[in-house]
Design brief:
This protein has helices spanning about 45-50, 50-65, 95-100, 110-125, 165-175, 190-195, 200-215, 225-235, 250-260, 270-290, 295, 300-345, and strands at about 10, 10-20, 25-30, 35-40, 75-80, 85-90, 95, 130, 140-145, 150, 155-160. With about 350 residues, it is an alpha+beta fold. Helix 4 packs antiparallel against helix 7 and helix 4 (about 110-125) packs antiparallel against helix 10 (about 270-290).
């Protein structure tokens, strides 16, 4: 459905197009009731008549509506216009992570912060029983104020929350086994590739792949064809790739634990990864603070130190003067008798 500036969809006035994708068109719009600008996503007319596309659109709306977190795109409203559904979300200003990576790797400090924010958003989603299943740079948006936002919950699985009785029952039955592969090659976990049951740890693997790519500028699993890429996910160890040398040694353990082939060897929850990364950031901040501690101290502490050093130096100089003077005096006294006894001998006839 092509929309023009000024068109109205319910209370939303179209301002300008923002982008277009397989799941529809996105427009900048204005909520005429509240006077705020929003993003309005409209399904293509063909998608509105396709049961699978419509189900994905509705699934994403339900998944995002259940979440309220600063690192997850917020949805404000849903509706229908001439039989075509639309969703209204917050309007983001910034750039997509995939666009940012075209200019090269991200600095380690910034990449770690982005990974922390993604992990925080995933932890909130997992706590509500939502598995994203498609974490990749294209689905991470970096706002102008430095925040990372998780986008596109279109293939998310919405299930019981962790700890629920229904969650334990699902786990005993094998959780969410899919008869077909859903996700993006190169970012899917091994269990996703194999079509096996998945849980929240599949998102941890995908985040590890994104973290690796941010620091190296290269995908952790990237081959000429989709089949080869999926085989790489199953067999290759990114730790052995030469690009790994670009990753600071102190950050590598977080990434490679997230990328373990066996879910049991990975971080068991996004929250666990988040806690480790935040602890690492705190250690780095503490070390930096120690390096600048002297400059950060109040001036009176500096004056006290200088006075103490000067006083100590003065005392040492005084003691050294006494020592030198006493040595000189002893030498003079030792030489006087010899001089007096030799004088009369020289005066005899």
């Amino acid at each position: 459905m092509a929309l023009s500036t000024g068109d109205l969809l319910g209370p939303y006035e179209i301002i300008a197009p923002l982008g277009k994708g397989g799941m529809g068109e996105v427009y900048r719009a204005r909520d005429v009731r509240l006077g705020r600008e929003v993003a309005l996503k409209v399904l293509p007319e063909t998608g509105a008549n396709d049961a699978e596309t419509l189900a994905r659109f509705e699934r994403e709306a339900r998944a995002v509506a259940a979440l309220n977190h600063p690192n997850i795109l917020s949805i404000h409203d849903t509706g229908e216009h001439r039989g075509v559904p639309y969703a209204v979300t917050e309007l983001l200003e910034g750039e997509n992570l995939s666009d940012r990576l075209r200019s090269g790797p991200v600095a380690p400090k910034r990449a770690t912060e982005i990974a922390c924010q993604i992990a925080d958003g995933l932890a909130a989603a997992h706590a509500r029983g939502v598995i994203h299943r498609d974490i990749k740079p294209e689905n991470i948006f970096l706002t102008n104020d430095g925040r990372a936002k998780i986008l596109d919950f279109g293939i998310a699985r919405i299930g019981p929350r962790p700890g629920d009785i229904t969650s334990r029952m699902a786990a005993s039955r094998g959780s969410s086994s899919s008869q077909f592969v859903m996700g993006t090659a190169g970012y899917m976990s091994p269990e996703q590739v194999r079509g096996k049951p998945i849980d929240f740890r599949t998102d941890v693997f995908s985040l590890g792949a994104v973290f690796y790519e941010m620091l190296t500028g290269r995908r952790a699993f990237d081959r000429p064809t989709m089949i080869e890429t999926m085989t790489s996910v199953l067999k290759d160890d990114p730790a052995k790739f030469p690009e790994t040398e670009k990753i600071p040694p102190e950050i590598r353990p977080f990434i490679f634990r997230s990328l373990e082939k066996d879910p049991a060897d990975r971080y068991q929850a996004a929250r666990d990864l988040l806690l480790d990364l935040r602890a690492f950031q705190a250690e780095q901040t503490h070390e930096a603070a120690e390096r600048v501690q002297f400059r950060a101290e109040p001036p009176w502490k500096h004056r006290r130190t200088r006075v103490l050093l000067r006083a100590t130096g003065g005392v040492l100089l005084f003691l050294l003067g006494i020592f030198v003077g006493s040595c000189w005096q002893r030498g003079r006294m030792a030489g006087s008798p010899a001089a007096s006894s030799s004088a009369p001998a020289g005066s005899r006839p």
